[in-house]
Protein: Galactose-binding domain-like protein
Organism: Favolaschia claudopus
Amino acid sequence: MNEGGFFGDRAGWHLPGFDDSSWNTTTLSEGFANAGIRYLRTTFPLDVPAGYDVKMSFNFPLYGDGSYRVFLYVNGWNMGRYVANLGPQSRFPVPQGILDYQGTNTVVLAVWATSDEGAQIKSFDLTVDSVLEGGTGLVGTNNPGWEQRDSF
């Protein structure tokens, strides 16, 4: 429902469960040296104790070098767009329910280098913004998953 127009979006490359095992392994800091679109995927576990409301955000550099945009997908949901050389948003809060506080999470960056200089993301991290005791109780997740389709 909140997918963009890139081929990778239509093919489900941003969805949990997509098989990326044939993709080359790289790091954000390696970047790439030409115009184009690249998808970068990773997974990570969370184990937040019950009884706490933990606010978390994904963070890019305040202003990046180069002319590129990044579409941030968390567990299949488009959680924001980062514009490296323009800003102003570099911090993207992601609530419980999108983040699975008791399971594996998938983060995908669709990086669009708009010039021949390519793109290099110097930093990207998940931070804990605050921890509140009490919490909201159990919050379920209803994140989309990848499934094979005949056409898209």
Summary: The CA atoms of residues 11 and 148 lie 9 Å apart.
